[in-house]
Amino acid sequence: RGMQAQLAARRKRLDAGDQPLGWKVGFGAPAMLQLLNISAPLVGFLTRNARVQSGRSVSFAGWSKPVLEPEIAVHIGRDVPADADGETATAAIAGISPAFEIVDLTAPPQDPERILSDNIYQRHVVLGGAGPARAGAAAAGLTCRIIRRGAESARTTDPQANTGEWI
Q1: CA pair distance 37, 31, nearest whole angstrom
Q2: What share of residues in the chain are helix, strand, coil (percent, to 5)?
Q3: In the beta sheet, which residues pair with residue 99?
Q4: 3-state DSSP call for residue 91?
Q5: β-pairing, 144-148 with 151-156?
Q6: Where are the alpha helices (DSSP H) in 16-85?
Q7: 52: which strand partners?
Q8: What does the alpha-carbon distance between residue 30 and residue 38 come to, in Å, rounded to a whole number?
Q9: Beta bridge pairs of residue 71
């Protein structure tokens, strides 16, 4: 039911002239899978009207709880069949790049149906970098850092610990 509501909202946006940008996965970290009692991450959609260029402002007027989430954008270079194995999925990844998602946490993440129906809280996305790098989404040697007001506020050398496995 949550996915049906989400896809209906997507269809409404596309019918109104918005264009697809891609898909997102959320709640894939082991702790969230356990908390929500799910066996795989949740899927949501991204549209071009939700994309914000780096350096632009976003109004939070009327939002419940705005949250900025650092993300990894996985750029898919070709279609992947539904029955594809991990090797085929990995080979289809053109590269990765930094991204930020801006979400509105309208309710605590407790009910997968509600989370899905609200498109996993998604409101905006900022895609960073000059383009995708690291074909196949190789994470070895990757360090992710968040710099806030000139000071490093977070660092990890294992971003998949936060996001779940990219493949």
Answers
A1: 10
A2: 30, 35, 40
A3: 71, 127
A4: helix
A5: antiparallel
A6: 30-36
A7: none
A8: 10
A9: 99
Whether this model's pTM surpasses 0.90: no
Neighbour tally for 146: CB within 10 Å: 14
E strand or H helix at 25, and its extent?
strand 20-26
| pLDDT by position in tens, the chain (length 167) | 999 999 999 999 999 999 999 999 999 888 899 999 999 999 999 999 999 998 899 999 999 999 998 888 888 999 999 999 989 988 999 888 888 899 999 999 999 999 999 999 999 999 987 677 777 777 778 888 888 889 998 888 888 877 777 77
Of 77, 6, 3, 87, the closest CA to residue 47 belongs to 6
- DSSP assigned state of 4: H
Instruction: Give the list of residues 6+ apart from residue 138 with CB closer than 8 angstroms, or none.
Output: none
Q: What is the amino acid identity at position 131? A: G
Q: Are 97 and 131 in contact (CB under 8 A)?
A: yes
Phi, psi of 145 (to 5 degrees): -130, 145
Copy the structure tokens of residue 143.
């360090």
Angle, vertex CA 99, rays to CA 31 and CA 149, nearest 5: 95
Pair of tokens at residue 78:
């070709």
User: Which regions of 27-92 does DSSP assign to beta strands (E)?
Assistant: 42-47, 66-76
